Amino acid sequence: MGNSSNTAQKVAPSQVDNENKETKKLKPCCACPETKRARDECIVLNGEENCGELIEAHKKCMRAHGFEI
């Protein structure tokens, strides 16, 4: 009875930290799909020079995810 708490597997804190970092790490191509889609569509239809607002919104989103843009 007293050993029931020992049935749980013990995990070192460093293992948990490494696992969290790996699962949270995004590739640039996968971050901000909403702003990327809107930006790309605008560029195709209207030209890059007419989509500054959407381009900046995508850059802001990417920066929020830790990418240096």
TrEMBL record:
InterPro entries referenced in this protein's UniProt entry, alphabetically: Cys_alpha_HP_mot_SF (IPR009069), Cyt_c_oxidase_Cu-chaperone (IPR007745)
Entry-linked Pfam families: COX17 (PF05051)
Example of a GO biological process term: mitochondrial respiratory chain complex IV assembly
Residues the entry annotates as binding Cu cation: 29-30
Localization annotation: Cytoplasm; Mitochondrion intermembrane space
Chief place where the protein resides: cytoplasm
A Gene Ontology cellular-component term: mitochondrial intermembrane space
Alphabetically ordered keywords of this record: Acetylation, Chaperone, Copper, Cytoplasm, Disulfide bond, Metal-binding, Mitochondrion
Role description: Copper metallochaperone essential for the assembly of the mitochondrial respiratory chain complex IV (CIV), also known as cytochrome c oxidase. Binds two copper ions and delivers them to the metallochaperone SCO1 which transports the copper ions to the Cu(A) site on the cytochrome c oxidase subunit II (MT-CO2/COX2).
Similarity section: Belongs to the COX17 family.
The protein's name in its UniProt record: Cytochrome c oxidase copper chaperone
